[in-house]
Amino acid sequence: MISGKAKGLKLVTLDSDKTRPTTDRVKESLFNIITPFIEKARVLDLFSGTGSLAIEALSRGAENAVLVDKNPESIETIEMNLENTNFTDISEVINLDYNDALKKLSLGKNKFDIIFLDPPYSKGLIDTSLRLIGTYELVVEDGLIVAEKSIDDIVPEKEGSLKLVRKQKYGKTELCFYRNFIE
Questions:
Q1: How many CB atoms sit inside 10 A of residue 132's CB?
Q2: What secondary structure letter does DSSP report for 52?
Q3: Distance between CA atoms of 106 and 96, rounded to whole angstroms?
Q4: Which among 183, 90, 174, 167 has a CA at the least distance from the CA of 134?
Q5: 63 C-beta neighbours (distance < 10 Å), count
Q6: Ordered domains of the chain (ranges, CATH)
Q7: Phi and psi (nearest 5°) for 80?
Q8: CA distance 59 to 64
Q9: Rounded to two decimals, what is the model's pTM?
Q10: What pLDDT, in 10s, does the model give residues 68-87?
């Protein structure tokens, strides 16, 4: 279920083992924490899956969102969910591997206020994603990156100007909040 403008709409999910949706409990807690950052934010949802994080942000007042996933089934699901919530006009869907998508976004001089990272667990993708986001300067100064991970995964405290400022555990899931502090 979604809050905000699209409140009450249920998103289409994937019947696949290729995605691991963010649980409603984690999503609700996440958005309670980041509410002050959402209004008019430019959002990047990397490893988007069904698009639920970006769609929730759009529903709560984000200006626009870019949703990235390499799985064609995910892309189809994201597009259905954007259409059902009437957010197609303020979103862009990219069907690329995260590495290629980040490079493409950097070439377009894109910068985001909020970036969601929800990659497959235990593959080291958060570290690599943070490094590329910093290298390509894709997050605004004082911008926010939220990474969802297994409690067993280790992530860096700092990656360039990106600093880990908060961790929040929910069972076997942990949210890590990074801010971009340009010195």
A1: 19
A2: H
A3: 14
A4: 183
A5: 14
A6: 28-180 (3.40.50.150)
A7: -65, -45
A8: 10
A9: 0.91
A10: 999 999 999 999 999 999 99
